[in-house]
Amino acid sequence: xxxxxxxxxxxxxxxxxxxxxxxxxxxxxxxxxxxxxxxxxxxxxxxxxxxxxxxxxxxxxxxxxxxxxxxxxxxxxxxxxxxxxxxxxxxxxxxxxxxxxxxxxxxxxxxxxxxxxxxxxxxxxxxxxxxxxxxxxxxxxxxxx
Length: 145
Hints:
alpha+beta, 6-stranded antiparallel beta sheet, 4 helices, 37% strand
């Protein structure tokens, strides 16, 4: 699956992704995913990124990375819990980066899903601006067949 195909999938299946202007910048098996969204569609009354948009883009990056890495089109992937730490205001376009988990963690996730039809995994994503961390997302996702 290419970045454009993944982006089209996200826009079709998750309408908020389209409304935010979320774009897949990079998607690499084993390397994670980078999403970007324009500030013009995601700002608050102060002209900085809206916290809900930061949270949504980070959640979307984590979801997209797991869906991409799991490679099971029929899997239902849902978030079970999450937390967000906002470290500084974002004044430019939003960039969310979700690295793939360690290979052994991802392998256990895939194996459990294949064996039981259900698996849990915890992932992290960061939002960056000018190379500096602006927010941190942590979430637990569940894949169900």
